Amino acid sequence: MIEITKTDRRLLAELRTNGRASLTELAAATQISRATVKTRLERLIAGGVIRRFTVETDLDDRDGVRAITTVELQGSMSRAVIRSLRKIPEITSLHSTNGKWDLVAEIRTDNLREIDRILRQIREISGVLNSETSLLLDVA
User: Fold this and answer.
1) In the CATH hierarchy, which top-level class contains the domain 64-136?
2) Are 24 and 34 in contact (CB under 8 A)?
3) At a CB cut-off of 8 Å and minimum separation 6, what does 91 contact?
4) Contact 19, 4 (CB under 8 A)
5) CA–CA dist 112, 26 (Å, integer)
6) 108: helix, coil or strand?
7) Pairing between strand 103-109 and 128-136?
8) Domain spanning 6-46 has what CATH number?
9) Taking the domains of the chain in order of start, what are their residue ranges?
10) pLDDT, tens only, 24-44
11) Could you give the 3-state DSSP secondary structure of residue 90?
């Protein structure tokens, strides 16, 4: 595991704001040389601190239906269930957890009919013992 410096944290903060920022833009924003930015980014990538660069969309701001579904699994089937859930494109994130529920899935669709279809699909996966879903109404 590599040590993360204050300068590294500044770079990472800038990348969270704009993952497409050029080396020159990152250097200006962090007030360090372009060569230093390049070296530090290469070290952060090689060290596994930066795992991937991604795209943020406006999908969170659009109309649609979002839900959080918690899932209880049959222990011996957990890997197979996770593989099946990852194939459902409307499940935008999937997390393992502890407590009563084994998994937490975020679902995004255009309407309630689609939510119903996805929930039926989840319940039909062999190894899913129980599930509970909450619709997300508004940001608090």
Assistant:
1) alpha beta
2) yes
3) 85, 105, 106, 107, 118
4) no
5) 42
6) strand
7) unpaired
8) 1.10.10.10
9) 6-46, 64-136
10) 999 999 999 999 999 999 999
11) coil
